[in-house]
Amino acid sequence: MGKAARPYSSLTATPDPERLLEDLNPSQREAATTTSGPLAIIAGAGSGKTRVISRRAAYAIATGAVPADQILLVTFTDKAAGEMVERMASLGHRGVLARTFHAAALAQLRHFWPGRHDGAPLPAILDSKLRLLVPLIGRLPGGYRFTPAKDIADTIEWAKIRRIRPERWAPEGADRAPIPADLFARLYRDYERAKAEAGLLDFEDMLVETVQLLEDDAPAAALVRSRKNWFSVDEYQDTNPLAERLVELWLGDSRDLAVVGDPDQTIYTFTGATPEFLLSFARRHPGARVVTLAENYRSSPQILELANRLVPGGARGALRAIQPDGPLPSVRRFPDAEAELGAVVEWIRAVGAAGVAPTETAVLVRINAQLPAIEDALTRASIAFTVRGLRFFDRREIREARHLLRRAQPAETGSALVAAIEKLFVERMGLDDVAADAGSEGRERAGSLELLLGIVDDLAAADPGLTIDAALAELNRRHAAEAAASADGVNLLTYHRAKGLEWDAVYLPALDEGLLPIRQAKEVEEIAEERRLLYVGITRAKRFLALSSSSRRPSRFFVALEPPRPALRRVRVLPGPPQALAVVPDDRLLEGLRRWRRERASADGVPAYVVAHDTTLAEIADARPRSLPALRRVRGMGPTKLERYGAEILAVIEDAE
Questions:
Q1: What is the distance of C-alpha 389 from the center of its chain?
Q2: d(C-alpha 99, C-alpha 228), whole Å
Q3: What is the pTM of this model?
């Protein structure tokens, strides 16, 4: 950075601390040389924060500010901790400890637990809450038994990081649960009882018990503080209240705390994280120094211009490019999803021809349920890919659905088979009973089942005599193709999984209202987080970037990133010729559909989402189908819904003309 970066090995055990600073820019140097007292480093994307954290620790040791064994470098993930240990070792300091909050807390618990529990060792750590939650959820009444266990687990985690016990749930967290508050409180209590009876602690218990230990046991707290008293906390914008309390207890009377983060990359508030601890750091720590890192060493000026338009920078200010000019980002609209998928394929081929390796190319999506269509398009184009994270056919509900179809063996064929499968999903998997607004996993589950149904529907459209055996054979083939995905291929993953990663070329498809921002995001802060999520996606790209929409209701963020334009214009894009942009429709039809849904739900005595999800109504408004077959092609309009509501929906469309 600035000057050519010196290899770490040449800095090992340097007797001259100044050599640690030679390749740092002025802001990085200021942060690295502030080795005592409270410090907040506001580090923009690609600004070299990991280098600064390691050099700062090495500089503090080299200048005698702190012994190496008094340092604790707190990271967000185990992987980041391992990388930090390697960096410190390359700088000649193998004894410096880097750990996550949970790993550091667990080590302290193991040390003190026997002395506080009659010599008993620390209980085993539960590998997954789902092991205890699944049978408990299965005993819930009615359709609540289909509630995804992960949404329940996430809500329990949210409660625990706020130290909310089951008996306090109803008054303090009632609106957070994916099921009624009384049912959740009972389930939460039963989970805690089952965990205790099994002699286990869960992931949050590591922090809860450590905080309790340090609050209640003064000698233990004093011993912990005597061993580590110089702290650096990375990804501080994603710190939750429980972790923040742990930092306070570790710190005690020491003032040697440095925190590093970027408020514009806060994307985990659904887990309880908040940027407020970072934003209020200087106020809470009198005399704190605040250093801003805004020079970006990752992305081209053209990519950063787009990122800065989306998120101007707030407390950090706009990112400043260090890299040379690159190609203009591609910003395109397409008439439908099929055309957009074709463009994704062509763009991957184009950047490949420009010298970008498949492993340096990524396609990012908002939710996992968007990936199978991209996987299928790449498979047909003979483009290798790898899914980073949970693959579609490995999802629990998809495995259960395929198992259900193998057992049930419906005898119908063609479109009647699709209707029979949808009926099975409704009755046996609660597809229509999933409250789509309740939790992220509930949305993923419903989307995955609807996508699986859509795959079978497409097969039936191509083969009117489709049998269940033929359908299962094709699902097996697609599963095998997904499982055989190459580790050397194009990366497919969600925005959340992309945090902390980077590639030469990044494509961001489906920037549509209802997907990004996701339709459940209604409050101002929820929309702000969706904007930050797109910002994270954009700033993963080094040289090539593409964004696209295939909806008549493109994302408000997508529209904001387009150059000023009349209703119809032509834009410069890469790759391919200029693309005509469609006029954005008004909302009259969508409002008419919502009014019809309210009336129909009231008449049927069911929640509105059972009649149709918001995304389904939005897609109907986009497509404006004029016939039942055309309406059936809208995602979420299965045979049962088509039969029940099809004629009414077509009448609403006709009235809106």
A1: 11
A2: 12
A3: 0.76
Give the side-chain half-sphere CA count within 13 A for 648: 18
Q: Find the length of the chain.
A: 657
Give the contacts of 66 (CB within 8 A, at least 6 positions apart): 35, 60, 229, 230, 256
DSSP code, position 585: P
Closest Cα to residue 544, out of 331, 329, 354, 347? 329
pLDDT over 90, % of the chain: 49
Structure tokens given for 632: 């059936």
- The 3-state DSSP class for residue 39 equals strand
What the block records as the tokens of 6 is 């010196």
How far is Cα 253 from Cα 95, in angstroms, rounded to an integer? Answer: 24
Which H/E stretch holds residue 411?
none
CA distance 540 to 493: 12
CA gap 410, 469 in Å, rounded? 10
Under DSSP, the state recorded for 576 is S
Per residue in 353-370, pLDDT (tens digit) is 999 999 999 999 998 878
DSSP string for residues in 332-355: EE-SSHHHHHHHHHHHHHHHHHTT
Band of pLDDT at residue 571, cut at 50, 70 and 90: very low
- The 3 state secondary structure assigned to 139-151 is CCCHHHHHCCHHH
- State how far the Cα of 543 lies from the Cα of 570, in Å rounded to an integer: 23
Residue 261 CB neighbours (<10 A): 26
Q: Name the token pair of 223.
A: 């011993």
Q: What are φ and ψ of residue 334, in 5° steps? A: -130, 155
Instruction: Report how far apart, in Å, the C-alpha atoms of 627 and of each of 630, 631, 638, 642 are.
Output: 5, 6, 14, 11
Calpha distance 414→383 (Å, rounded)? 31
Mean pLDDT comparison of 105-109, 617-621, 639-643, highest-scoring range: 105-109
The model's pLDDT over 92-113, given as tens digits with 9 standing for 90+, comes to: 898 899 999 999 999 999 999 9
In the chain, DSSP finds a helix count (H) and a strand count (E) of: 28, 18
* β pairing state of 97-100 and 289-293: unpaired
Beta bridge partners, 99, equal: 74
Contact by Cβ (8 Å): 642, 631: yes
174: phi then psi, degrees, rounded to nearest 5: -60, -35
Place of tokens 């359709």: 143
What separation, in Å, do the N-terminal and C-terminal C-alpha atoms of the chain show? Answer: 59
pLDDT of residue 75: 95
187: which residues sit within 8 A by CB, 6+ positions away? 133, 136, 137, 140, 152, 179
- DSSP-assigned letter for residue 121: P
